[in-house]
Amino acid sequence: xxxxxxxxxSGSVPAGTPAWSSADAAQWVQTxxxxxxxPMWSVPALLVTVVWAIAVEPEPPCSxxxxxxxxxGGMVQMxxxxxxxxxxxRLPELTLIAAxxxxxIVAGVELPGxxxxxxxxxxxxxxxxxxxxxxxxxRLAARSRQRHIAxxxxxxxxxxxxxxxxxARGALPIAAALALCAVAAGAVLMGLRGIHADEQHAARxxxxxxxxxxxxxxxxxxRTDDARRVTVDSYFPEDYGVGSTVxxxxxxxxxxxxxxxxxxxxxxxxxxxxxxxxxxxxTVGVLARHRAAAxxxxxxxxxxxxxxxxxxxxxxxxxxxxxxxRGPLFTCLLTAALPGGAEPSNRTGCDDEEAELFxxxxxxxxxxxxxxxxxxxxxxxVTTDRGGHPIVTRTASPLRLPRTGRxxxxxxxxxTAAPSGATKTRHQAQADRVSATLTPxxxxxxxxxxxxxxxxxxxxTAGVAAGISYFTHSLVTGGFGWEILPLLxxxxxxxxxxxxxxxxxxxxxxxxxxxxxxxxxxxxxERLRAAQYTxxxxxxxRLSDGSTWHLTGLGEPRxxxxxxxxxxxxxxxxxxxxxxxxPELRPIDRSTPxxxxxxxxxxxxxLIALTxxxxxFA
Length: 618
Hints:
By secondary structure, the protein is α+β, with helices and mostly antiparallel strands. The chain has 15 helices and 19 strands. The protein has helices at residues 22-30, 39-56, 72-90, 92-108, 116-154, 171-204, 265-295, 352-355, 426-435, 451-478, 484-491, 494-502, 557-562, 568-581, 601-617; strands at residues 206-215, 219-224, 229-233, 245-251, 254-257, 302-309, 315-318, 330-332, 334-336, 365-370, 380-384, 390-395, 445-447, 504-507, 511-515, 520-524, 528-533, 539-543, 548-551. The strands form four sheets. It has a seven-stranded antiparallel beta sheet with strand order 8-7-6-10-11-12-9. Helix 2 packs antiparallel against helix 5 (116-154).
């Protein structure tokens, strides 16, 4: 259904600015990164391999010949591994540096007592890092392709409108990053200071031998050769059996075990806790500042487009000919670009008293983008407020590509009235309200796990993978025993892990495609009878023949209501119900098998089978 956009005054459009045609925009969309380069593949690959490596890494006990102590190399490895789980998803620029560095460290470190299982895990980590590095390179290459296509479509560049305001992008992340990096640097200095003090005491100390009399939670009780009884702190008291002999260093009242020098583990944790967010924020701030500065180096590409703001304040940009608002190209947050100290005006075109009744203007607006758009980029946008007056805005967040098939809320005057009728269920009543926020869609609509749900799925998968690796390794090295019971129990949780990570519901012109843990099922519209979410955090799809399709464990409704969250599975049920009640809102196009989702149950089962085989034949 087409819509007449709010026009932009001709004087606000730079002379000779071309319209971004649907053909050029489609070519721009097609250059997005390949599916294999999406973080949903590289992040789990690295997470699973790191958990596997940790589970099978040999841990030799502390001894006088090979004392324990601060492991700065291990801290760097862990920091890079944890950081890459975020950088793979959001900062491909940092991934290109961190992934090769971690791969080099893993390849160059020789663990004492490492077996074939541990070596295989390290090889898997290097392979996952290589895959993540290639994915990051593909994403950056896609950004370059998008930028060049936009520049070619824009033709002759144009100067920026005046004024465009101060260079503020990136200032807050950089300030926060510097503070966190200062904390991390201080923690490093404190750790090194503790190590230096320990070395000075050890240089002056006298070495004695003593017999272990008893053990505490963090100490051992000793009897020295001269019959003294002393208590010495120990990080691993379980490693010293009662009656065994240990070596002790004494310097006055200071004493420690020879096998356990000062360990700066607490300071190292603080380094990671402050340094990783600090490095991430610093990279985000520097990139935002660099891109904003590059945008101000006039002239820049200019294109005429359509834009719409949704109820959450995000702006969605469409091709100039997409008057139905079916195919959003990208989305971002915008703020007014005014001189320093000026207050940004709202888009309502009303005074302060009327602003209390502010309603977001979700109509389509004609606009001009200044700058080459690409995923993660920055630009300026000239559009109109609610009163039709031109305003200049700039990005307050990086550009992001929308999920396929998702469109923003329509304008208030295009709301679809819900049909009146008899008594409705709470799901139908909510669906009637939701139907007022939907527009007829051309492309298929898709729903899947949100960020919180997928994060929970990753954590759950990591726990299951770690447990299976541990118990499998125990079975191989110690023979069959009690470990078989928790191993079988963990195998039963694969279903939930697969659902949390990648459940998928796709709506197209033919009906619903339901992807669970193991299979994909098709339900024609005429066979769909109801969709509802349960009080236990699950979903039920009921069919006309009485059968049901359900998913369980997707959320915790009471906690979600308390936190005022609206998770994706709730949104899916409401929108699917609206599509069932309002056939005119259903997508026009048919979906492809790629849209239906990939059941991860067989993938996880194969991964576990490979892990078990590696343990059995290593």
